[in-house]
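Handout, page 2. Input:
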Amino acid sequence: MKTHFLLHLTLAAALLPFISPGVSADATLDKIKDRGKIVVGVDGASPPFGFLDPATNQTGGFQTELSRNIANRLGVELEVVPVTASTRVQFLQSGKVDLLIANIQWTQERSESLSYAPTPYNLVGGAALVRKESGISKWEDLKGKVACVSQGSNFAKPLEEYGAIVKGLRGIPESLLALKGGTCVASVHISPAMHQVLVGDSAAEWADYRIATKDQLIPSPTVIWTRRGEKDTRNFVDSVIRDWHKTGLLVDFAHRYGVPDEYFSDAHQKALRGEYDAAPAETANK
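Output:
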């Protein structure tokens, strides 16, 4: 009898975490609060979304300010970690970062391996930087020509559909070097970053280049990414993004850091009317 009692007690203890009503399925927010710090993956020095402060060698700018706002709402410190197209998913899945705020647009493929807050904080498409004399004035003109993108870019597939030969490189700096060196005829990345090349501190060295077409390549919702199964984290972040839209904070940050306002003001007005954009629904493992 005693043996049966101990067996039942052991089984009950083993099942307790699964049946206790107060247990959360997502402990990420608790872990963040316990350690007193949230770690966010950002694009790093990638104007106009991120800038490197030469005095401190620290990353700041639009994405860092968004990250800091989330940290402040949680009452914790902020640590930003620069990520690249080749490291960002690995950093998130391995727990090296808690969130990704790094200009990563929604794609079906990404949504099958990561989760995300469904309210976008931006809407961004691709732009092609080309030489002025290239003769390229529309996406169809890239047929049979080499276009450089970041590894894992969601612009690769639509470029291939236009007949371009896509070459994936580590990031925007490597892509721009390849463009200057003649390895590719177009450097294709998010539109604000390509426009920044032509008006930023290094604009003089790009005087012989232009944006091929004003038509953005597959404008897509930019979302904040989390790990799969982190429902509480995702819901909290989504509520923050909705507040950003409603209060106009995104408009303020965009103007402060020179991020083109092609979306923020319209989204702010929609939020004031109680309307919000949403990325496509996730497929599984929400």
